[in-house]
Amino acid sequence: MNQTATRNSSFFYGWIIVGISTLALLISNGLSIGGIPVFYKPIQEDLLRLGTVTAQTKDSVTGLGAGLTFLLAGIFSLVVGLLIQKYSLKMLMLIGSVILGGGLAFYSQATAPWQVYLSHSLLGLSLGLVGVMVQTVLIANWFRRKRGLAMGIILTGTSFGGVLIPIVARPLIESYGWRAALLMVSSIVWLILIPAVLFLVKNKPSDVGASFDGDSLNAECELRNADFVEKDNRAKNPKPEYGLTLGEAVKTPAFWILSLCAAAIFYPIFATSQQFILHIQSPRIGATAAQAATAQSLLFVTSVGGKFLFGFLSDKLPTVRVMLICCGVMFLATLILLGFLTANTIFWFLLPFGLGYGGTFVLIQLLAVEFFGLRDIGKILGALTVIETFGGFVGSVITGRLASAAGGDYTTAFYGITMAAGLSLVCVVALNFFAPRTEVKTLNS
Question: How many whole angstroms separate alpha carbon 210 and alpha carbon 204?
Fold first, then answer.
């Protein structure tokens, strides 16, 4: 590629990176988290027929399996955070994509709970290598002024995967069975994702002779917004890392408040995205399989709107204030779960909850970058990811076990979602008091 032409062109290659990152999250999260719940009920029915689970254990198996994906994604993200400075993001993404495709192929042959657990563990490993944390660092390498917009765009991929996979998979399951359907939808890993990463991903702007946001290398500082002037003056040299190390970050109250907030947020997010589809198909709610698939897709459709809306607002308003709005919306939505959820009120819960969920998903990443800087961002995001995924794991396991104890009724289990959403709101209120002081410290580091 001609570097001079790239530098002088009005087109910025970073937007290609945004497209590939969005695609990577659409496929990886769509197949591992957002879209996989549409397979849960036929998987349960198949394992019941084979006699490897019982009516009393099937929901626990599903809850633990889903939780393992999320927990191990966090643990592996921490490990990958330590590897980012030694290995290229492109190579990590390629390895993650291969593991994702292989894990789904193994899952399609599962006949016992241990195979379900191993399959979910492989999916978790793949997410650590090609998921949100790696994509966040990749976008941070390419953008400064437009980072909020870029992050909002790529994180819609996690939602679009949850929208598209249920729509595509439901008729395939009905026509060919869940095993063949899972193999069919997983083919997009081999045919689309791996070639895109292999041929199009570049690790940083200098690889194509550009600078952050497509700015001229000579005029980079002049084009910065006022909010980033001091940061960018420090970032004009080839080492644009500023902020706190992981060791420094964990000594700040803001790190632990943000961590608790993230764990409390991902409890309701993960339990809802994975087990709400089973909840509404229980006799108490009575939704059909088609209605449940539609509800699953709608959850992720509305989260797309939340990611765009609140990602955009975070470029205009203090990010921590926008986070307060998101958590408030989520908490108010969960009040419907306290005895008011019926087949007619499903969407009254899903619409606001999806908006808030989408916003928080973007803002947690941005808050970490804003509070602690880029000096050790891979390790910091890895640590935060472990904590937030532990919250999602706990939510999934508790929800599954309570549902099993209630004979497949998720009503009481879902009360925990309201409690966790309320805790996240309290944490964000507390975080607001630490935000100004923490941001100043980051800039002065």
Answer: 9
- Specify whether the CB–CB gap between 35 and 169 falls below 8 A: yes
CA gap 427, 363 in Å, rounded:
14
Residue-wise pLDDT tens digits, 322-345: 899 999 999 999 998 887 888 788
Query: 137 vs 84, 142, 407, 418, 419, CA distance in Å?
Result: 9, 9, 43, 32, 32
Kindly state the tokens that stand for 54. Answer: 């019982």
Q: Decide if 384 contacts 137 (C-beta within 8 A).
A: no
Mean pLDDT across 378-398: 84
pLDDT digits (tens, 9 = 90+) for 28-61: 988 998 889 989 999 999 999 999 988 888 889 9
CA angle, 140 then 142 then 145, to 5°: 75
Rounded Cα distance, 269 and 158, in Å = 12
Half-sphere exposure of 110 (CA within 13 A, CB side): 33
Q: What percent of the chain has pLDDT above 90? A: 33
The more confidently predicted of residues 329 and 442 is: 329
CA 54, 112, 293, 365 torsion-angle sign: positive
How far apart CA 370 and CA 356 sit, in angstroms, is 20
Q: Which of 263, 273, 274 is closest to 299 using CA atoms?
A: 273
The C-alpha atoms of residue 210 and residue 14 are separated, in whole angstroms, by 9
- Cβ-based neighbour number of residue 370 at 10 Å: 23
Average pLDDT, the chain: 82
CB 141 within 8 A of CB 11: no
Report whether 330 contacts 268 (CB < 8 A).
yes
Residue in the block written with tokens 């198996």: 61
What pLDDT does residue 238 have? 41
pTM: 0.72
Task: Give pLDDT, residue 4.
Answer: 39
Alpha-carbon span 110 to 267, nearest angstrom: 27
pLDDT of residue 145: 77
Instruction: With beta carbons less than 8 A apart as the criterion, state whether 379 and 243 touch.
Output: no
The domains located in the chain, with CATH, are 11-215+227-444 (1.20.1250.20)
Q: Are 38 and 164 in contact (CB under 8 A)?
A: no
